[in-house]
Amino acid sequence: MQIFVKIPSGEVVSLEVEPSSTIAEVKQKLSEKRKQDQIDKEREKEKGNDKEKEKEKDKEKEKVEVSSPSSPSRKRSIISEKDDECLIFDGKKLAETSTVEECNISQNSTVNLHIAPSSQKKSKCSFGDCVRRPVLIVGNCKFCTKDFCAQHRLPETHACPNMKDCRQQSFDRNKAKLMKEKCVAAKV
Predict the structure, then answer these.
(1) Which residues contact 102 (CB under 8 A, 6 or more apart)?
(2) Domains of the chain, start order
(3) What is the pTM (predicted TM-score) of this model?
(4) Tens digit of pLDDT per residue, the chain (188 long)?
């Protein structure tokens, strides 16, 4: 039978479960489904980026007969399984060992996923032992996708593992700009 699980972000996930399935099994299926959905979204995003890159490469080849290397592939963290997640149906917390049938969950019912406050992400800098709060917008490193305080926000200061990609991207950007402004002597 099909049930729906509403997660805290407001998204509704549909799951195919058996009446004899335990709540722990439902949570496992939900976790797997969320991981797969996130992977699929990342793949679609990468495909879109690849198409844009190909168009940009074609344009650059027409202008300057030089191909540019591809930009870094960024991997985002995948949703991890949390022990403090619980499912709530009709205002009651569902026990891990009880079955879907015992909880009176019927076809097309909606169950809410609740995440305990202790498991929610703490806001602190991702650099070593730094306990400062990350800076909004500019504190997110686009190369390693971590959040940093004002002191560690630059890739050089937090020893970004993708520093090579960062340098290559800057090099390519500068190269394209210089080639665009290149002076060509007229042939006589």
Answers:
(1) none
(2) 1-120 (3.10.20.90), 121-188 (4.10.1110)
(3) 0.46
(4) 888 888 877 788 888 888 888 888 888 888 888 888 888 888 887 777 666 666 666 655 544 443 333 333 333 333 334 456 788 888 788 888 888 888 888 888 888 887 765 544 557 888 888 888 888 878 888 878 888 899 998 888 888 888 888 788 889 999 999 988 888 777 76
